[in-house]
From TrEMBL:
This is Chitin-binding type-2 domain-containing protein. It comes from Drosophila yakuba. Residues 1-25 form the signal peptide. It comes from the Eukaryota. Keywords: Signal. Residues 52-86 form the Chitin-binding type-2 domain.
Amino acid sequence: MHPQASFWPLACCLVLLLLPSGIRSLCNDSFEPGCLNPVELHIPQRYCIDPTKYWLCNDIGSQAQLRKCQPNTGFDQDLNACVPWTAWEWKPCQEPPSRPPGYVPC
């Protein structure tokens, strides 16, 4: 058997193994709020990709602003505030009251 004959089946298997994980990694939901509901105004909301950041809605219908916590702190979604890392713990993200216009779920 020629070396090239075994290359293509192995290459195809490798592509098939990597394809599903590549598709799943395309969607990183930041849980950006839509700022369409009055309860979202001036209440920090978790940015789910980076625990050192949070979203803030200043006006109804405006785009949420991404803000950064002070150094050595992470955003706690239960307190809606940045807390020291010693007090922070990971939790699943909560769905915001609204999503931006045109939002497509993962």
